[in-house]
Task: structure prediction
Amino acid sequence: MSTRAWVFLGYFLVVFAIGWYSLRATRSEADYWIAGGELGWFSGGATLAATHTSAGTFVGTIGVMYTAGWSFGWVLLSIPLAYWFMAAVLAPRFTRQKELTLPAFMETRYYGKGIRGLAGLIVLVATVVYVQAQIVAGGLIANIVFGVPVTTGMMVFTAVLLVYTVAGGMIAVVYTDAFQLVVMALGALFAVPLALRQVDGLGGLLALVESAHPLVFTWETMPASLLLTMGLSFFLGGIATPEKLIRLYAMKDMATIRRGVLFAIVMILALNLLVFVLALAAIVLFPQLATGDLAMPMVATAVLPATLGAVMLAAALTTEVTALPAPWQLTIDQLPADDAVATGVAGGRGMTETLDRVVQPATEAELAEAVRVSTGPLRVLGGGTRRVGNPTHGQAVSTAGLRGVELYEPGSLTLVVRAGTPLAEVEPLLAAERQRRPSPLVPTTVV
Result:
């Protein structure tokens, strides 16, 4: 493999090592979902900014600017407005009710399971669109760095997403996000002067870019109606996507949230300004690209030193890996009932080993470990049990695999069985519990 490919792989290993080390600090369900809710303004703002600034910026935004020119830059003005709205309007209401997912917040806020289901459906649809765009970017980058077909790169990137989703947790995400934001910022600061050197400085760039793309500084590539609708889409996406809103819970108070959001705005705008310069340089240096999405990979491989280019591409891509688990997992929140259920738990425990735990609630450490090692499809057995307190523990996590786990509430019935155990083998246990417990269990399967 080339030096660039080795550096790329090495960067991935460093990020996964940071995530794995950070995961050891996860001791509770709150740690897993919201990093214990104790983030400061720098770490909270860094994870917000890194979530926004990733392959979508370094591949997608550069690609659109390469094709459409500076008019797309006006769409980016919706970003600070969206973050201001999130901090000034949404955050006080959202943090007042401590839920762990956006759909659960909607149910509590508006007193209806119907709105929770609708929110989950909207999040699911939006996540599918969001994820597919990032997977395409992963395929393009893999094609440039390793020379593999784009489809193969997309498949490998999807596999990496699944692995990190299983091992992920908000503490791990926060540490890796902060690290990668610093890498992307420093990388862009080094990349812009190197790119300008190829085109005789900023003055030479502005002169050459109009020759290569006469419409680059006009409004003709994107009419006002398109700019308005895209700006509205960016605004709504900025204020309502789960991976951003859940980070509000991760910060310790409103003052911290405001400082963190301000820091995120500054970093996002600064990085987008640097990205715009790189897009202009790509227009001059590579005027005949088949798609604008190749602009940043070409700059990284043909203009920047091999190590810097590989690190830039790897940072942009791995930021997507750390950002995606949040919406991915939150969409699954809709599947089970909001009360205690029984599912398979990793570790190969037999049914006879778990019978003595049938009516024992899980500890915080057990919940955290179960979330860490569990994957789907999720089998849910049960429903109709007594709700105990705020149902924030009744959240299911499912991430495409072999095993499932349900976070259950203290005081409600929990049955832990080996993953893949046929329902028929579990029903006798449920029948026995019906005789001992006042709350009837209704076996249900959710896949």
Remarks:
- The longest strand covers residues 396-397.
- The domain at 3-330 is CATH 1.20.1730.10 (Sodium/glucose cotransporter).
- The two ends are 41 Å apart (CA to CA).
